[in-house]
Each structure stands twice: as C-alpha cells, then as structure tokens.
Amino acid sequence: MTSDLPHFTVASNLREQIEQWAQELGFQQLGITDVDLGEHEQRLQQWLQQGYHGEMGYMADHGNMRSRPDELQPGSIRVISLRMDYLAPEIELTSQLQNKNNAYISRYALGRDYHKLIRKRLTQLGKKIQQAIEAVNQQQDISYRAFVDSAPLLERALANKAGLGWIGKNTMLINRKAGSYFFLGEILTDLPLPTDDSYQKEHCGRCTSCLDICPTQAFVGPHVLDARKCISYLTIELDGPIPMELRKGIGNRIFGCDDCQIGCPWNRFSKTTAEQDFSPRHQLDKATLLELFAWDEATFLKRTEGMPIRRTGFENWQRNIAVALGNAPTSLEVVDALEKARSTSTELVRQHIDWALQQHQK
C-alpha cells in the first residue's frame, strides 16, 4: 500500500475520514486504486472488434480513453470508486416477471434517475476531501472530477481493482456481501492517496446460472456478452425494429432485464437501500402492460420525468410494450388494445403491433 503523500502534511486517518464521509453521503463502500487498466483495455478492444457492442457507437468512441482515466481527466493518478445499493425494500424481483400480463421494468430504473443523485453526492465528497487538504496545507491545490456511468470510463474494471468486487461471468460487478444490485461512481483525482491492494478474484466457481437463465442467450461464453442479443440493449439502446428471432425471448420485459442478476446465487446477500429516491414511482413496479400501452406521449413524458425510463423515448416504449403484448396470454382485451393502437402508431410501432397480433392468431 502506498503511504507517502508528497507536498503536504496530512492526517494519517484521511483514508478513514473519506470512508466515513462516503457513508454519511449514502455510499455503502469505497476503494482507491490507480489508473492502470492495461489488461482490461485489451479485452475491450477484442470485444469491440467482434462487433458485440451493436449500435452503441459510443463504446468505440474516444480511442483508448475509456481504459485510460488520466486521458479523461488529465493529471489523475487515483480513482476513488464507490458503490450505492439501489433495491427499494418494497421491491419484489420475480412475481411481476412471472405474470405475463404485467410489465417488467429493470429494478434500477423504477425511481429517480441515479445519475444526478450520485454525481451530486460524489461532488460533495470531493469538496470535503479538498477542504480537508486545504485545512492542513493551504498551498496544496488538488483537482478532482466526479463520474457516474455517463463518461467513457471502465467503471467495473476500476471497481474491481479498488476491491469492491469481481467481474462475474455475467459481466456484472459482484460483491460477496452485497451481490450486484448497486450503482457505481468514481472520483478521479491528482491527490496521491494510498491505494487499496484488494483486487478481487472471481468467486463464481463452476456456476453458470447467469449464463443459462438469459432469455435470449446473449452470452457468447463466461464474461463475454453479445449486447446485440441482450434485452437491455434491445429495449433501451436499440433504435429501429427489434430482430424477429429475439422478440419471443423478451417476454414481458419492456425496459431492461435483470435475469442474469436474479439467477446469481450471490444476490442472496444483496441489501436494500434507504434512499427514498430509488423507491418506485407511479407504481411502475406493479403496472400492467395494457395500462402502460394506453399512455399517450404526454403521459409518458410526465410520468417518466426525472427517471431513467425517459431515455428510451416514447416510440421505443410503445415498440417494447407491443412486443410484450405479443408475448402475453391471448385475450380480447389484448387484441383489442393492439388493434386500436395500430391506426395511430408510427410505422416502427405498427410493425411490432402486427407481429404481436400474429402471435395471437396462432
């Protein structure tokens, strides 16, 4: 562990103070690492060369910046990686998924958009660290910058190096005491903090539950996800028609997918969150497909304001629900809703409505 903090005198318990401040700000764990992601850079390039990123062009943008944090924030030598649990206490993981008349929304997306909340907390933590350094040495000037999932940064790789968990066969970061239902955030800084020598080795063993449970068989193998087949990609990232051969596998999932986490045995250790902002809004954790399909665009924009769901856009929202209705049990209500929506829908949505109606004619 690095212990020298050149150019200024600082209390020996700064690391403990940072951890305490992080907990006060709602984070459950932090780790500190350097900016070297050499081996992860090679894996990313191999993944991109296979085209597994699909239409997510941003994954290939910015050269090697994604695996070189010091290019994203020049001068950075340390990364403070933090996690925040997001499962609300009232959330039930499987019952909504099992009832095919219901709409399943990935559990991270049911409440307030986490980006703003976590970035604000990270910035507050950065300010506390800066103030602590200035209190010891007013001549010492440090820089820092907070990131949450929206910058070209290999967050899971950094969290792995910082000791927050290991990257599982489902490509998620898994923690032995907390599973994988948590958000990650980072502070990049030029402050030479002691690093945590706690790189987490994989503890998946022979288990392949996450790979086996995937509804669209999106995993090429352990640690390799073909995003083009992933339901999260298909329902959130993809614009245009959802490939015919993948529509049945989507089931009633209309925004994201949690199956590879639900199937992970380590998530029996997952913890619920105390953050009220992550609680479900508008009872979306219990909504039916027909209820959500009846929304017009104004209702969609109003009900999803400040939520991650807004990202998919109204047209893709309707597209996704049309597919889910095609996978729902046949009923007069379902067929009637699809037929009524057809005449007022866009060409893209109409294609998926026609497919759904065909499923109920079989």
Structure in words:
The chain is of the alpha+beta class and 362 residues long. The chain has a domain at 14-89 and 111-189. It contains 15 helices and 10 strands. It has a 4-stranded antiparallel β-sheet with strand order 1-2-7-4, sandwiched between helices. It has a two-stranded parallel sheet with strand order 3-10. The longest helix is centred in the middle third of the chain and has 23 residues, at 114-136.
Mean pLDDT reading: 93
In terms of DSSP E residues, the strand content is 5-15%
Question: How many strands in all?
Answer: 10
Order of helices and strands: HEHHEHEHEHEEEHEEHHEHHHHHH
Shape annotation: elongated
* Widest sheet: strand ordering: 1-2-7-4
- Report the sheet with the most strands, covering strand number, pairing sense and barrel closure: 4 strands, antiparallel
**How many distinct helices?**
15
Query: What is the percent of helical residues?
Result: 25-40%
Unreliable residue stretches: none
Structural class call reads alpha+beta
> Rg to the nearest angstrom?
22 Å
Task: Measure the end-to-end span.
Answer: 65 Å
Which key features would you list for this structure?
alpha+beta; elongated; 362 residues; 15 helices; single chain; two-stranded parallel sheet; 4-stranded antiparallel beta sheet
